[in-house]
Amino acid sequence: MSPLDSLVMRAALAGIGVAVAAAPLGAFVVWRRMAYFGEATAHAAILGVALALAFDLSITAGALAVALAMATTVSALSGRGYGMDTLLGVLAHSALATGLVAVSFLTEVRVDLMAYLFGDILSVGKTDLAVIWIGAAAVLGLVWLRWSALLTATLNPDLAHAAGIDPRREQMVLTIALALVVAVAIKVVGVLLIVALLVIPPAAARPFSATPERMGIVAAAIGMASALGGLGLSLRWDTPAGPSIVLVAAGAFALATLVDLVARAAARR
Amino acid sequence: MNLLTISNLNMRLGGNHVLHDVDFAISRGEIVTIVGPNGSGKTTLLRAILGALRPTGGRVDRAPGLRIGYVPQRLHIDPTLPLTVRRFLSLPVRVGEARAAEALERAGVADLGGRQMTDLSGGQFQRALLARALLAEPDLLILDEATQGLDQPGSAAFYRRIEEVRAELGCAVLMVSHELHVVMAASDRVVCLNGHVCCSGAPEHVASAPEYRALFGTGTGGALALYRHDHAGHSHDHDHAAPAALEETP
Predict the structure, then answer these.
(1) Distance between CA atoms of B153 and A28, rounded to whole angstroms?
(2) Sign (positive/negative) of CA torsion A222, A209, B77, A158?
(3) What is the ipTM of this complex?
(4) How many domains does chain A have?
(5) Contacts with A, B 99-118, CB within 8 Å
(6) What torsion do the CA atoms of A99, A105, A109, A112 make, to the nearest 10 degrees?
(7) Nearest C-alpha of chain A: how many angstroms from B115?
(8) Could you tell me if residue A152 is inside a domain?
(9) Residue numbers of the domain that contains A64
(10) CATH of the domain at A130
């Protein structure tokens, strides 16, 4: 019997794959204050799910396509003098609402909406797992290859220009990576909680990091521990898996903040 | 051979004609300062030179393979981004310990490699930016209001450091500033900008030009003479001289 025949093992591997890919990308989401951008991208994916179901396409492909379209639109609109938080608020929730309404039209397919909103990690099959790991590897590879350029562009666009880096191109790299993470994370945490996996592990890693690289690695470790811890919680207490994973990550953040506060207080004395 | 040639440059931003018909060039090893009042298009010109803005009309020609070191006016680092000075120096190209230490030394902040960028004082921060710009082994070093937030002795010291760097590396320097007297004293050539090039030439020439006086008044002309110091046998050690003390310098 292959280890992949175990439902729990597949769930654990899926969770680890998404968490490890989301964490370093999430660090950029935190540094560039793109959390709302992530929300808009993730919420748009539900519309992709509806379209995929209606036309009998792959859910991942549908979610990826619509998420990418949304992320590109938002990218193009940013830096043109719009009030970005308002605009993103409008887009994120309109996309979600459109998706939910679209799903309600699908009378011929029985849709378990909750599975797409909050994830259904225990139903991950072998094919799903392969898709998740390929997507995760692509995101990690992209962020790894562009790390230095992304960091320079994040610090200051003019600094990037002076070094021969086009910040718009780096923004596009992040946009694509974000859409990929959204597409593969739907199965694991659902569209409503994806941003939590992007933002919470890096935020928890911040107090223990002196360099960007360290923050990315610590965030990946926290993300992985959250995925396994949340899954354990879910199996032990029969709680929904996606929210449980986010809960463990939130606990890690609270703990990290507390440790940081105590350490600072001690240093001041 | 010029490092950079700007010909007939026009820039429109959001309906404003910010720069019109700007011509100038920088050759190897010279220090050129752009002065001009607020809103005169100084930063727009720099951004066009960096390639961050596309010219509406005219051309910006860089010498082939031109390496630019850029020290921005301000660098906001998000508090969520941990960044040591040493790590900052390796952006975007990794540099070895020896080169990093040399650049910090040259910029005048030798022992700060392990500190967080956000913990530095204003002067230390600007020097860390300078150290990073030097690591690009620039042919052209561009500084945008690099001494903003520094007091007068601090910025005088910073500009003296720039002169030393030029002497050591042989790079050209393009600076923007509105601290007229301090900057002009350190320049070979001054370009007075107000949407277009009003006048340009040696600092003494520009300071006495009517176009310049119309923009900045006559008060700075005298101060310029006082700040102009002897390049030959100068010790560069009066970093903390107060302006009052400098009034007495011959």
Answers:
(1) 38
(2) negative
(3) 0.85
(4) 1
(5) 116
(6) 40
(7) 9
(8) yes
(9) 3-192
(10) 1.10.3470.10
Which two three-digit tokens encode residue A155?
A: 């610090």
Tens digits of residue pLDDT in A156-211: 988 899 888 999 899 999 999 999 999 999 988 998 899 999 999 999 999 999 99
Quote the pLDDT of residue A80: 63
Q: Has residue A178 been placed in a domain?
A: yes
CB within 8 Å: A165 and B68: no
Backbone angles phi, psi at A144, to 5 degrees: -60, -50
Q: Do A212 and B83 touch (CB under 8 A)?
A: yes
Do A161 and B77 make contact, defined as CB atoms within 8 angstroms? no
Residue B222 touches chain A, beta carbons under 8 Å: no
Decide if A256 is inside a domain: no
Encoded tokens for B239 = 């970093």
Token pair in block for residue A80: 């043109």
- A223 assigned to some structural domain: no
Q: Distance from A241 to chain B by nearest Cα, in Å?
A: 29
List domains and CATH numbers for chain B: 1-67+179-218 (3.40.50.300)
> How far apart are the C-alpha atoms of A108 and A106, rounded to whole Å?
6
Q: Is B142 on the interface with A (CB under 8 A)?
A: yes
- The residue with tokens 């030029």 is B166
The reply to whether B47 touches chain A by the CB within 8 Å rule is yes
Query: Does residue B78 sit at the A interface (CB-CB below 8 Å)?
Result: yes
